[in-house]
Fold this protein.
Amino acid sequence: MSNSRLTVREIARLAGVSVATVSRVSNGTGQVSEETRRRVLRAIEEHGYRPDHLGRALAARRHGAVGLVFPGLSGPYFSELIQGFESEAVKAKTSVHILCTHLRADSDAEVIEMAHRVDGLAVLGGTVSHDTIEELATMRPIVVLAGDGPAGVPAVRVDNAAATAALTRHLLVDHGLRRLEFVGDPNGSPDVTERWAGFRQAHRDLELPLPRAPIRVGLQQPDGVFAADQVLRRAIRPQGVVCANDETALGVLIGASGRGLRVPEDLVITGFDDIPMAALVTPPLTTVRQPVRELASQTARLLLQVAAGSADHTSLLHPTELVIRGSCGCPTSTAPTPTGRRRTPQIAPQRHEPSGAGDHP
Amino acid sequence: MSNSRLTVREIARLAGVSVATVSRVSNGTGQVSEETRRRVLRAIEEHGYRPDHLGRALAARRHGAVGLVFPGLSGPYFSELIQGFESEAVKAKTSVHILCTHLRADSDAEVIEMAHRVDGLAVLGGTVSHDTIEELATMRPIVVLAGDGPAGVPAVRVDNAAATAALTRHLLVDHGLRRLEFVGDPNGSPDVTERWAGFRQAHRDLELPLPRAPIRVGLQQPDGVFAADQVLRRAIRPQGVVCANDETALGVLIGASGRGLRVPEDLVITGFDDIPMAALVTPPLTTVRQPVRELASQTARLLLQVAAGSADHTSLLHPTELVIRGSCGCPTSTAPTPTGRRRTPQIAPQRHEPSGAGDHP
DNA sequence: TTGAAAGCGATACCAT
DNA sequence: ATGGTATCGCTTTCAA
């Protein structure tokens, strides 16, 4: 009930001690006699005292908060990301500020503004310029998530290029496909940039003609449908499309099926991420699994460590896993199970471990 | 470059004025001679001074931040919500703290903890107990989004029950369907509770036997696929399913189609929300459009107003719109367009305006 | 072990 | 129009 006018001073008075002692008790710092501690604790309990965060933050010179900067798009990917990050922060009694840069005019300025209010910042790759990240890095601990920052700024990521190359190679070699196209905008985010690079690299490695320009669309399901329309309109249709992520792949699948195309017979489709739906569509989606949630919580932990000073400024490279299902043309042994996540891929997944994980100048 | 050791005092010294004057200038409050203001401004610019938020907040007794509490699920709905809320907060130079309660043990305590750090709180319906909301309301301005709080706590919402009833009636009357089932967990959130209520009410109004128990699943696409499996396993299949939201409806559609069922011939499906994908699937989804983003930004505005004292503690009831497409059995005039959002529904949408919008004790 | 007092960085009242 | 100063709520030396 009562709450407002409660300060250290007040509690100190009620417990018959000094504010310093109250502070010691409520923080568990310093030496306090058992008897005094009990008295103070009782006063605190009795009146429901909670130390004010502003006063505490001002005196302790830390905000007790970290920021998360992300574009602000829809879908399972970002939700996983946010939850993974947030859950880790909460464990550390740190609150999370968010900033969506998507469709915002001067987001860089806002990010800097935010940096003033937090102890550290996690920035999704591609949301702000490198220059800004560099500036941010001079004022606060920064970690780049799913992308790369300037040298010296730690990043948490997966090897998108290698994974996409492996996936593309599967299509090119194991299925003997030619005429593949890439769906996604390489300028949209570092993830897509790298996946596009891996897609091309696979062609190069096999000394095949380089693929044509990507079908530049966004990362959500509707974008995939849009991409499917574009593909279907072509004079010569590709045999397969490698999509920047699962959501667009699902969109392509839905768009293609809706227009009478059979997958994978008429068109092969692959995704990236391995979101839950990937295993549940018909045919189930061949894709690359990346531990999004783990990436995000890892990022939070790293950021918190750096902010606490106990930092190994190391970048982290997480492993991915090729998940072969039916949409690439591989046989699907059985109908997809409703709980696709738990199930093991039909074909033994090909572990793709990055070479020098964890090293970074 | 330089930044850390810069305080009001320092700027005051550099500009040869008092801290009070610096404060006046940097806040635009009080009277300052043009000449002095210029001098102070120059010092500020020159050294890149930015008033510290903690000091400011402590002195001004406000945090400059609001909190958003939501379950933390995936999908277009929550993304829209977050972005709508955040964009409005940013406009007001207020930062947004987030808290995902989903799958968290003692989230109520964390929400209260958060309340101490912000000027106001927007709570999604169903994320915390009514008791807790009541407690929160005694300490901070609270707005409930998509749900209802205790009396006296403003809420921003749509009339889910009426909208779902209208939709159900369309199925029951215009299509002459019987044996409808509801997909969604009424205990999951107030939204679903109300939609379930509307679904039943429509039956009651027509003096039809009440529908059987709902198929209790979550609100995401995979849950819809799961629901489809359940439905298909039944001895007597329903003629149609009214889904709690579009995402599950899409899941049901995908699951049903994948198992060879034709929609709407064999099974009619409807959703709720009108997310972009709703117009893009085959057949396009009959659903109810609700202005999610607008609801969220409305909530932010309301919260900010209340926090600023300039409050009409009124609850807001937004209108919804029945969107008839093909999945209910109505004829689809043409193939769905790739940019479904912009397109007008095939059948003139039936405006469903709530009766007493905006009134609340 | 405990307390007095000096900040932390900014605001705002009260004189001037 | 400007400056001095108390204050916001808490932490943290420094003495006692």
